[in-house]
Amino acid sequence: MASFYGTKLPSSLMLGTSQYPSPAVLQSAFKVSGASVATVSLRREGANSAGQPFWDIIRKLNVHILPNTAGCHTIKEATTTAQMAREIFNTNWIKLEVIGDTDSLQPDVFGLVEAARILTDDGFQVFPYCTEDLVVAEKLLGVGCEVLMPWGAPIGSGMGLNNEYGLRTLRARLPEIPMVIDAGIGLPSHAAKAMELGFDAVLLNTAVAKAGDPEKMALAMSHAITAGQLAAKAEPMEARDMASPSTPVIGQAFLS
């Protein structure tokens, strides 16, 4: 199991906490999934009395809290939100989002690197939501990030891993860096594929929260991640261009 800023997690599944039909469904989904991290949006919850019941629910999940800067479009917005989150949630962990495009929610990678530098210098342990671009990844590592969170596809799209080649290349070039596939996961098969590629964890929200039965989907995602991890460790066969019989022909009877 990879270490995230010195913390080894019991599960490779991270879950978001928004869009669930009810707090009870959220709690049930976390319980059956075995997720070890809950992401929380500061803007949605806040520190006032209205947000306190939700915060109480999150505490009772007994998981690591990963506040995020969701909805931030500038460096100033993101760094200020992160500083507020540290005060409220009492953690140096921050999932850093600096959104550059409103339609695709693609990260502004230039602002992301600068915001990551500012927050790292301020003692934060930054989990940057980034693209699968190798150069961007190296820039983030250069400013002090020790974890990367490349997207699979646009947030909430459920499209899976849009650029498997890019993700595979990123994983191969930076084998020692903990990496989490963040965003775009829609099916258990997507989560399994991420783990088969050698990623260390998957973060998802919409696929579970908006499923017809969030509890069943959460359990399915948990099983898929376990299957993907086992497959990666099993050293799967290479794909071939041509058929290869699974039953040997040596010793087979030939009738004339």
Q: What can you see in these coordinates?
A:
With 256 residues, this protein is α/β, with parallel strands linked by helices. Helices cover 41% and strands 14% of the residues. The protein has ten helices and ten strands. The chain has a five-stranded parallel beta sheet with strand order 5-4-3-10-9. Strand 7, helix 6 and strand 8 form a beta-alpha-beta unit.
Which of globular, elongated, flat, extended, rod-shaped describes the shape? globular
- Note the run of SSEs as H and E: EEEHEHHEHEHEHEHEHEHH
Strand element count: 10
Count of helices?
10
* Radius of gyration, taken over Cα atoms and rounded to an integer in Å: 20 Å
Which blocks of ≥5 consecutive residues have pLDDT under 50? Answer: none
Please describe the topology of this protein.
Elements: E1 3-4, E2 7-8, E3 13-16, H1 23-33, E4 37-41, H2 42-45, H3 52-60, E5 64-68, H4 75-89, E6 93-96, H5 109-121, E7 125-130, H6 134-142, E8 149-150, H7 164-173, E9 180-182, H8 188-196, E10 201-204, H9 206-209, H10 214-233
Parallel strand pairs: 3-4, 3-10, 4-5, 6-7, 7-8, 9-10
Antiparallel strand pairs: 1-2
Helix pairs in contact: 1-10, 4-5, 8-10
List keywords for this structure.
3-stranded parallel sheet; alpha/beta; 256 residues; 5-stranded parallel sheet; 10 strands
Task: Please provide a brief summary of the model.
The protein is α/β, with parallel strands linked by helices. Helix content is 41%, strand content 14%. A five-stranded parallel beta sheet has the order 5-4-3-10-9. A three-stranded parallel beta sheet has the order 6-7-8.
